């Protein structure tokens, strides 16, 4: 498994039998008890994240569970899925919801933007009835949000920012057009005019700590 | 607007390089025209040339040359479904099959805007084939566009288009159950011509009416080699049930025959892509 040579697979190639410790990961599918490749790319066999499994000592046999994955070189063709964190730009705001254009899904940039929607009740987790959309988002803001559902045909993906880590990341001040600095979790200040504007601010985690935060989250749940 | 003679003498028009001749001459058969092909063995697929990833603005693309038949396929997406269409949990494929105005030596020049009925029909067959091959359940609410452009039509276009679309989709890293390969066959009584040229195809379609002496037919299949499944089946003409079985069997064997070529082509482009991807990092 630790071979440095890359193994290429093509769609429809049978990779292995689906046994107890082999799991079909991304870029593969299972048919008649075998794992097949569905992408043209490099075969990767990765140990499954030992989060909840390691807590249960009785399941020692599943500890070496590996996931069979195929990764295509270059950019992945991604579409937003339920539970993904996406980067989106606010296009318009009204008292009930904000319309967004989804630009990135997790780390990958989309070729073409997808439409998204944050409803008033999904802006924050507490005091939902007191949310004012204009004090949360403004057109042009770049926000982080999580995909709630695929939404309706007309409206695009339904998103939420009801987490501390989600919300506005980049915003420009109304008068000076300068990138503002967050001063509290509901306010941002313009470094030029010292005007304060209301936003639903995301608590952005530094990149080197992001992996740790995920681990902590897995342990907590 | 202009007749061919005036356009040739018009000094304001670009006359083309030396040795070029008007396509009108080919139509009337007065000048050299393309050199006649040596008669090919009836059981073999014509020489195949495959290349992927030649269009930089498409997500994936493939160019296929099968004898003189040349076509280009490009894949875009997955992208958002336009507002007006219905909600679907599965992805949607939109397939457009078009011939270039100069592709077919005998047909009238096709309109650049409106698809011909034959083009629409081939689009539908191709769409059916790809719908079975692409993992559409992984692309909810999105659409994948496949465009096939025939540059030169010398028979077996649908078969070549199926192969090209399969390659282009794999090149676009769209998840698929299997590669798709196309092959076609023309049968006149007991004479079987695998991968017929345009002349052979036309000869077959002339023999399609009931009154003619021998029955002729034209069969195209789309095939998934590792799953051993047919994804497309198009047949024109008259044929017996036994012959259908034989012909489909034969075409599947032919598909398996050129599968290594398709795989090689994809592998080559994969290697190049990974190399350039690593250099970027």
3D structure, described in words:
Chain A: One of its GO terms (biological process) is RNA processing. Chain A: One of its GO terms (molecular function) is RNA binding. Chain A: This is S1 motif domain-containing protein. Chain A: It comes from Tigriopus californicus. The complex is a heterodimer of chains A (221) and B (281). With 221 residues, chain A is mainly beta. In chain A, 8% of the residues lie in helices and 38% in strands. In chain A, the strands form 4 sheets. Chain A has a 5-stranded mixed barrel. Chain A has a 4-stranded mixed β-sheet with strand order 1-6-7-3, with no helix packed on it. In chain A, β8 and β9 form a beta hairpin. Chain A starts with 7 loop residues before the first strand and ends with a helix. Chain B has 281 residues and is α+β, with helices and mostly antiparallel strands. Helix content of chain B is 33%, strand content 26%. In chain B, β2 and β3 form a beta hairpin. In chain B, α3 crosses α4 and α4 packs parallel to α6. The radius of gyration of chain B is 20 Å and the shape is globular. Classes of the chains: A mainly beta (221), B alpha+beta (281). Chains A and B meet through β10 of A and β3 and α6 of B.
Helix content of chain B: 25-40%
Radius of gyration of chain B: 20 Å
CATH top level label of the largest domain in chain A: Mainly Beta
Across the major sheet of chain B, the strand order is 1-2-3-5-4
User: Radius of gyration of chain A, rounded?
Assistant: 21 Å
Quaternary structure classification: heterodimer
CATH superfamily of the largest domain in chain A: Nucleic acid-binding proteins
- Structural category of chain B is alpha+beta
Question: How many helices of chain B?
Answer: 6
Shape of chain A: elongated
Q: How many strands of chain A?
A: 16
Number of domains of chain B: 1
What global shape of chain B is seen? globular
CATH-assigned homologous superfamily of chain B: GHMP Kinase, N-terminal domain
Largest sheet of chain B: 5 strands, mixed
- Indicate the low-confidence ranges of chain A by residue numbers: 52-61
Number of DSSP strands of chain B? 9
Arithmetic mean pLDDT of chain B: 83
Secondary-structure element order of chain B, as H and E? HHEEEEHEHEEHEEH
User: For the terminal residues of chain A, how far apart are their CA atoms?
Assistant: 31 Å
Keywords (chain A): Cytoplasm, Exosome
Main location (chain A): nucleus
InterPro entries (chain A): Csl4, EXOSC1_C, Exosome_cplx_N_dom, NA-bd_OB-fold, S1_domain
Organism (chain A): Tigriopus californicus (Marine copepod)
């Amino acid at each position: 498994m630790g071979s440095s040579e890359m193994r290429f697979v093509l769609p429809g190639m049978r990779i292995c039998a689906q046994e107890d410790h082999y799991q079909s990961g991304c870029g593969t599918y299972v048919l008649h008890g075998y794992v097949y490749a569905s992408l043209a790319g490099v075969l990767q066999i990765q140990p499954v994240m030992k989060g909840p499994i390691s807590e249960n000592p009785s399941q020692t046999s599943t500890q070496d569970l590996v996931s069979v994955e195929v990764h295509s070189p270059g950019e992945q063709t991604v579409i937003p899925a339920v539970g993904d964190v996406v980067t989106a730009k606010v296009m318009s705001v009204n008292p009930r919801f904000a319309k967004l254009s989804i630009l990135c899904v997790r780390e990958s940039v989309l070729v073409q933007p997808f439409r998204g929607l944050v409803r008033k009740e999904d802006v924050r987790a507490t005091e939902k009835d007191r949310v004012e959309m204009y004090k949360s988002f403004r057109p042009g803001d770049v926000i982080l949000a999580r995909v709630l559902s695929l939404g309706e045909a007309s409206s695009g993906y339904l998103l939420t920012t009801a987490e501390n880590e989600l919300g506005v990341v980049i915003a420009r001040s109304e008068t000076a057009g300068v990138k503002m600095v967050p001063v509290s979790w509901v306010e941002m200040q313009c470094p030029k005019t010292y005007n304060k504007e209301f936003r639903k601010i995301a608590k952005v985690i530094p990149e080197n700590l992001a992996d740790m935060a995920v681990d902590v989250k897995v342990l907590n749940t | 607007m202009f007749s061919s003679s005036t356009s040739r003498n018009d000094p304001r028009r670009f006359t083309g390089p030396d040795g070029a001749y008007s396509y009108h001459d080919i139509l009337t058969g007065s000048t050299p025209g393309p050199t006649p092909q040596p008669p090919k063995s009836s059981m073999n697929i014509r020489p195949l040339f495959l290349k992927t990833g030649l269009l930089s603005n498409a997500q994936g693309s493939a160019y296929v040359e099968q004898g003189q038949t040349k076509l280009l396929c490009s894949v875009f997406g997955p992208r958002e479904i336009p507002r007006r269409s219905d909600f679907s949990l599965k992805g949607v494929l939109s397939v457009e099959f078009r011939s270039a105005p100069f592709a077919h030596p005998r047909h009238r020049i096709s309109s650049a805007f409106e698809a011909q009925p034959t083009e629409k029909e081939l689009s539908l067959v191709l769409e059916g084939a790809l719908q079975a091959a692409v993992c559409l359940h992984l692309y909810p609410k999105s659409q994948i566009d496949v465009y096939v452009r025939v540059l030169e039509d010398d028979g077996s276009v649908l078969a070549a288009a199926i192969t090209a679309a399969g390659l282009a989709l794999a090149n676009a890293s769209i998840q698929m159950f299997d590669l798709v390969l196309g092959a076609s066959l023309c049968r006149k009584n007991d004479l079987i011509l695998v991968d017929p040229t345009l002349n052979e195809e036309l000869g077959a379609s002339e023999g399609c009416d009931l009154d003619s002496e021998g029955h002729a037919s034209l069969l195209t299949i789309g095939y998934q080699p590792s799953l051993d499944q047919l994804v497309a089946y198009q047949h024109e003409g008259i044929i017996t049930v036994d012959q259908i079985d034989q012909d489909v069997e034969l075409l599947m064997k032919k598909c398996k025959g050129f599968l290594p070529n398709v795989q090689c082509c994809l592998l080559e482009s994969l290697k190049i892509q990974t190399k350039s991807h690593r250099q970027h990092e």
